[in-house]
Design a protein that fits this description.
The protein is an alpha/beta fold. The longest helix has 19 residues. The radius of gyration is 23 Å and the shape is globular. The protein contains twelve helices and 15 strands. Helix 1 crosses helix 2 and helix 7 runs parallel beside helix 8. It folds into two domains: about 150 residues, no CATH class; about 220 residues, Rossmann fold (3-Layer(aba) Sandwich). A seven-stranded mixed β-sheet has the order 11-10-9-12-13-15-14, with helices on both faces. It has a six-stranded mixed β-sheet with strand order 1-2-6-5-4-3. One of its GO terms (molecular function) is methyltransferase activity. InterPro entries: DNA_methylase_N6_adenine_CS (IPR002052), N5-glutamine_MTase (IPR050320), SAM-dependent_MTases_sf (IPR029063), Small_mtfrase_dom (IPR007848). This is Methyltransferase. It comes from Streptomyces vulcanius.
């Protein structure tokens, strides 16, 4: 357990250090309050010094964070000579930005109280994200704002037209805000309706609930994330008839075989920098490969697998269609059908997005797979 130290007046203070994206303990800490200017804050943060906001105003701290972000964004940006270069430069710039902004810190008390003027009550949001308090803890303001936002998403939920209901994501669990992959699973014909189905990497449990609503007799949903397992259990209790869905894990495949195995793995073979990014980035395509290599052994005779996958990685030069099809063949599988749809999320139509060309060409597909034999 890391401990962060600072000096307040002539008194040495300390607290636990917590970072969801495993940011190392800051080398040096200085105190900051409403008198701190954005230029000064950026110089400290860019040099590796953290700023612990004590005794100031919460909204002023947020404004300082925004001003720091605008200054970082004004810095020079290299243009990529290829889609792959553009992606890696974009990721590097995002990482550097996160590193600078992540050095503006706040102190949470014994019960997650944020003792700043005009501060919101963050205790419930922190309890949901971090679990029971274990004494004072220092976190980045940027992370805390994400925790607050996740709590609001959890209360409000995400509307899922395919269910006619809302799904409530937890902190660190990818929210089903991109509805095209849900719609693909909701509308692809079931011939016949399976008695059993597996939903691998269930996240919020949204696809498991869709399958149950479509009449699948028994759905087993899995995930490797304890947060996702808790989130899915909470959602399926509300969304599915009692006993139709079991949530198990942490694992990829559950025991046994199914008539249908559905998997919507993270779409980009790159390393995530935090828990939320685990829904988008799959290091070295490990989950995709695990699904393909394990599928045949977990299908009942006549069963099939549904791989729901964006081709964004292909447009970014991170994976080719040939490599995907070769992996399918190597797993002794064959493609029965492919149903595709274009994304409708705002970033696909944003010309200022550095990855606009790739996003504009993106197709999300449901690949129907069966054993080759």
């Amino acid at each position: 357990m890391s401990t962060i130290h600072w000096t307040e007046g002539h008194t040495h203070q300390s607290a636990r250090w917590h970072s969801e994206n495993s940011t190392p303990l800051p080398r040096r800490v200085v105190l900051a309050d409403d008198r701190m200017r954005a230029d000064q804050a950026c110089r400290h943060a860019a040099g590796g010094t953290a700023l612990l906001w004590l005794g100031g105003d919460f909204h002023n701290a947020r404004q300082l964070l925004g001003a720091m972000g605008r200054r970082v964004d004004r810095g020079p940006r290299r243009a990529g000579t290829s889609p792959s270069d553009a992606f890696h430069l974009h990721r590097r710039a995002k990482g550097q930005r996160a590193g600078v902004l992540g050095r503006l810190l706040v102190l949470l008390g014994d019960d997650y109280t944020l003792a700043l003027r005009r501060a919101p009550d963050v205790r419930q949001a922190c309890l949901e994200a971090y679990g029971p308090p274990r004494g004072p803890v220092v976190v980045s303001l940027r992370e805390l704002l994400g925790v607050i936002g996740a709590h609001q998403w959890r209360l409000k939920g995400v509307d899922v037209p395919a269910l006619g209901a809302r799904v409530h994501p937890h902190y660190g669990v990818f929210a089903p805000v991109r509805g095209e992959y849900v719609d693909l699973v909701a509308r692809t014909p079931l011939r016949p309706v399976p008695r059993t189905a597996f939903d691998l990497g269930t996240g919020t449990g949204v696809l498991a609930a869709v399958l149950a609503r479509r009449g699948v007799g028994h759905v087993v949903a899995t995930d490797i994330s304890p947060r996702a397992l808790a989130c899915a259990r909470e959602n399926v209790r509300r969304l599915a008839p009692s006993g139709r869905i079991d949530v198990v894990g942490p694992c990829l495949f559950p025991e046994g075989r199914a008539d249908l195995v559905v998997c919507n793995p993270p779409w980009l073979p790159a390393r995530p920098t935090g828990p939320v990014e685990q829904g988008v980035y799959d290091p070295d395509g490990a989950m995709l490969d695990g699904f393909l290599t394990g599928l045949a052994a977990h299908l009942r005779p006549g069963g099939e697998g549904w791989l729901v996958l964006s081709d964004l990685a292909e447009h970014l030069g991170l994976r080719t269609r040939g490599q995907l099809l070769a992996a399918v063949r190597a797993a002794d599988l064959r493609v029965v059908d492919r149903i595709g749809t274009r994304p409708t999320h705002p970033r696909a139509q944003d010309p200022d997005d550095p990855l606009h060309a790739a996003r504009g060409a993106e197709i999300t597909s449901l690949w129907r797979l069966t054993p080759a034999g």
